[in-house]
Amino acid sequence: MARESFLVTGMSCAACAARVEKAVSALPGLKSVSVNLLKNSLDAVYDEAQSSPEAITSAVVKAGYGARPKKAEAADNPTGAAEDEEKVMKLRLLVSFVFSLPLVYLAMGHMLGWPTPAYFQTNVMAWALTQFILLIPVMAANVRYYRSGFMALVRFGPNMDSLIAIGSAAAAVYGLWGLYLMAHGLAVGDQHLVHEAAMNLYFESGATILTLVTFGKFLEARARRRTTQAVASLLDLSPKTAVVERDGQEMTIPSQEIRVGDILLVRAGETVAADGVVSGGTGAADESNLTGESLPVDKNPGDKAIGATVLLSGFLRVRIDKVGQDTALAQIIRLVDEATSSKAPIARLADRISGVFVPVVIAIALLSGLLWLALGYDASFSLNIVISVLVISCPCALGLATPTAIMVGAGQGAKSGILFKSAEALELAHALEVIVLDKTGTVTTGRPKVAGLVAAPGHDPDEILAQAASLEKLSEHPLGQAIVKAAQIKELPLTEATDFLQTPGIGLSGRLSGKTVKVGNEKALENMPAKPESLLRAAEDFSQDGATPLFVVVEGEAAGLIAVADEIKPTSAQAIAELKAMNLEVVMITGDNRRAAEAVSRKVGVTSVLAEVLPGDKEREIRKLQKNGTRKVGMVGDGVNDAPALARADVGLAIGAGTDIAMETADVVLMRSDLADVSAAVQLSRRVLRNIRQNLFWAFFYNLVGIPVAAGAFYVLWGLKLNPMIAAAAMSLSSVSVVSNALRLRFFKPVRLAPEVGSPTERPTCGAATENAAASAQINEERTMVKKLKIEGMSCGHCSARVEKILAGLAGVDKAVVDLQSGTAEVTVSGDLSDAALTTPVTEAGYPASIAG
Fold first, then answer.
1. Which pick of 351, 400, 598, 814 has the fewest CB atoms within 10 Å?
2. Is the distance from CB of 550 to CB of 520 less than 8 angstroms?
3. pLDDT tier for residue 339 given thresholds of 50, 70 and 90
C-alpha cells in the first residue's frame, strides 16, 4: 500500500469535500480517502497495482476540482495557501464594500430619512440604473461564486457557492426585470407600475449578500491561517545558515546544504541546524521548543544534539547524522500534518449530511417559494423567501466543525511536546478508562543509581565501593555501571583486576591487589560458614524498598552490601495522582519481581500491579484489561518489548526518549519523556472533543432553526420573515463562530495538581535501616553539612538553573540552591563528598567554581 497527499483547489464547503471524497473512493484499489476542507488537502492510501497518483488527480478533476500531489518538504510553509487566500479575500472584500455601501445608501437612504442627491429624487430611472451599475463591480469581484456554483450545478453536485450564486443572481435578475418594467411604465405613462417596480429592485440585496458572505470568508481565511501557526512556528525554529568545518576550514553555508557526516560548529546563542551527535565540547541546550522541557539540557561528547534547539552556553562540535526529512523537527511537522489531515470518527455524521445538504436546501427553497405563491402571495414575497432560504443555509459550518478543532488541538499538543499521529488518536484518548504504565524507563528513569551502602564491622565503606567498582568496570551491566559512577563521583582509586570471571545468575569475581573479591546476589554468599545476619537484614530492607542488593565478599568473608535502585522520575507520583483524579484506573506492568514492583508502586501511588510479566505477554494483559472491547485502554511504554502492547491498546503512548519501534507503533508520542504529559494528552483530547461537540451542535442548531425561519414558517403566526441581507449576515457569522470557537483551544493548559507535602515526589526513593554499628556507613544516612561555592560565568536564569541541576544531580547532594545575583551556591551534602567532586562538574560545564572561604 502507498500513501499520497494532494492539494485540492476549488472546494468551498463540506459538500465539495464530500463530492471529492466520493469520487476518489470509487477508484479501484483505494483503501482509505480523507479530504480536509480546512487544509484543502486529500490523503489517500491505495494499492499501487490498481491505482496511481495520476488516476486520483484525474478523478478529482472530473469531479470539478483541481488537484496536484503535495511536495513532501518540511520547508514548505503550511500557512502559505491560507495567507494567499486571505489576501485574495481581502481584495474582494475591499471592492465589495467600496461599491456596496453607496448602493445600500442610495437604495434605502430615502426610507431612513437620510439625505440623497436631488437629481435622484426627480429621476427614478437614473436612480435605479445607478444601483445596477454599482452592483456590477461587486458581482465581478465575486465571480468565483458564480463560476464554481453554476459549474457544480451543471455537474449535479451543488455546493455552498451554488446557493450564493443562485440567491444573488436571482436578486440581480429580478432587479433587472424591474428595470424593464420601469422603462415600460415610463413609456406608457403608468407611474404606479414605475413606483411598484422601483420598490422591488433587490439590487442592494444581491450586493449585500455577496459582501457579507465575502466578509465571512475573509474572517474564515484569517482564522484558517491562525490554525496553522503552531506548525509554522516550528518551521521558523530552523536557522537559515549554519557553520560547518570542511577540510579543516570553517565556512557558513545555507542549512539546506548540510550533508550527513558534516561537522557542525555551534556557539552559545546559536541554533543547531540539523540532528547529530556531539563529538566535542560541552554546553547546555534549550530544547523547550520541541520537547516542552523548560530546564536546559546538558550536552557532552556522545550526547544527541537535536536540530532547531538553541545552545545557551558552551561550544559544541556536532557530527551530523540526520538531515532534511529525517530530522526530529521534520518528523514532528510530518506527524502534525498527518494528524490534521486525517479524519476523526466524530466527523462522519457531518460528512454524510453535507453530501446531501445543498440539494435538499435548493429543494426546500423552491418548494417554499411555490407554496407562498400558491397561498396567494406575490412574486416579490416568494422570491424573498427563496433567496433567504438559499443564503442562510450553511454547509460550511458543518464542514469546519471538526477539522478546525483537530488542527488547533494537534498544533497545541505539538507545542507542548505531545504529538498525536492521527485525528482518531486525538479523539479516542478522551474515552480512555485504564492507563497501563510500563515501569522501567516510564515510571522510573531506567538509569540505576547506588541507593545505599552497608559495611560489615571492620570494613571501610569507601574501600568496599572501590573494590566493587574495580570489578564492575569490566562489566556492561547497568547495575554495575551505577556502582562505577558512584566511585568516580567520590574520586576513589580503582584497582586493575586479574582472573576476572563473570558467572551468570550470580555475579563477578576476580583478584584485586592479591585478594579474591566477589560481587553478586545472595548466591555469592553460598559455601560461607557463617552468613552475616546484619547484612541479610539490610538486604531485606533494601529489597522491600525496591532496590537490588549486591554483596561484596573479600577473601571468603562478607565485607559489605551495595544497594542499587532504578530511580523513580520526580514527576511520576504527581502524574499518577493526576490520572487518578481524572477517574482513570492506573495499572503498572513490569517484568521485574513482585517485591520490587510493589515497592515502586507504593511510592508512586499505583494500587494495581502486574509483575513478572514476560515481554511477549504484555500484549495479552492489555487484551484482558480491554475485556473484549468493553473498556478503552491506553498503554504507555518506551521499549522494543512494549511495541506489541502499544499496538494492541486503544491508544498507545510512547515516551519520546524510547526506541524508534515504540514511537513508530504508538498513536501518541510524548517528546519530554514525562508521565505528566499522559494526563495532559487526555485532558487535551477531552477539551478538543468538547469543542467539536459544541461546533457540531451550533452548526446543526443554526440550520435547523435558520432554514424554517427563512422559509416563512413563523410568518403566519408572528409575522416573522427574514430579509435576505440578514440571512447572508447570519450565514457568514455561523462559519466564523465555529472557527473562532476552535481557536479557543490555543489557550489550552493542562490542569496540574499541586504536589502534596511529603508526597512520594518529595521523599527519598530508597533507604534501609540496619541494626548494627555498620549502619552509620550507609550513604543516605550519613551526617549532612552545607558547603558554599563561588561560581563565575553565570549571566542569566538559564545559567543558574543549569548549575543547580548539575549540583542537585550529584550523588551525595541532598539539596542545591544557586543565587544568580551573588554568584554563589549553597549545597547540602551527606557523607564525605570531596570539594573537587562538587566543583569539577560545574567548572567542566563552563562555570569556574571554587569553595568559598
1. 814
2. yes
3. low
| CA 203 to each of CA 113, 133, 200: distance values in angstroms, whole numbers, following the listed order | 20, 10, 9
Distance CA 727, CA 792 (A): 69
Q: Look at the block and give the residue holding cell 546476589.
A: 521
Active-site pick, 161, 262, 351, 438: 438
- Beta-carbon contacts of residue 631 (< 8 Å; ≥ 6 apart): 433, 434, 625
Q: What is the distance between the terminal CA atoms of the chain, rounded to a whole angstrom?
A: 70
Cβ(407)–Cβ(670) below 8 Å: no
DSSP symbols for 802-818: HHHHHHHTSTTEEEEEE
* Rounded (10°) angle between helices 124-141 and 160-188: 160
Cα radius of gyration rounded to whole Å, the chain: 36
| Cβ neighbours around 583 below 10 Å, total | 7
Q: What is the dihedral of CA 505, 511, 512, 517, to 10 degrees?
A: 40
354 within 8 A of 14, measured Cβ to Cβ: yes
The enclosing H or E element of 385 equals helix 379-392
Query: 852 vs 491, 698, 806, 846, 849, CA distance in Å?
Result: 21, 67, 18, 18, 9
Q: For cell 456590477, name the residue.
A: 136
- Of the candidates 279, 265, 282, 270, the one whose C-alpha atom is nearest the C-alpha of residue 237 is 270
Q: What is the pTM of this model?
A: 0.65
C-alpha cell at 706: 435558520
Q: CB neighbours of 3 closer than 8 A, spacing ≥ 6?
A: 43, 44, 45
Q: What is the pLDDT of residues 136-177, one digit of tens each?
A: 999 999 998 898 888 888 888 787 788 788 888 888 888 898
How far apart CA 791 and CA 287 sit, in angstroms, is 24
Cell of 776: 552509620
**Phi-psi group of 612: left, alpha or beta (phi > 0 → left; psi -120 to 50 → alpha; rest → beta):** left
Q: Is 638 a catalytic residue?
A: no
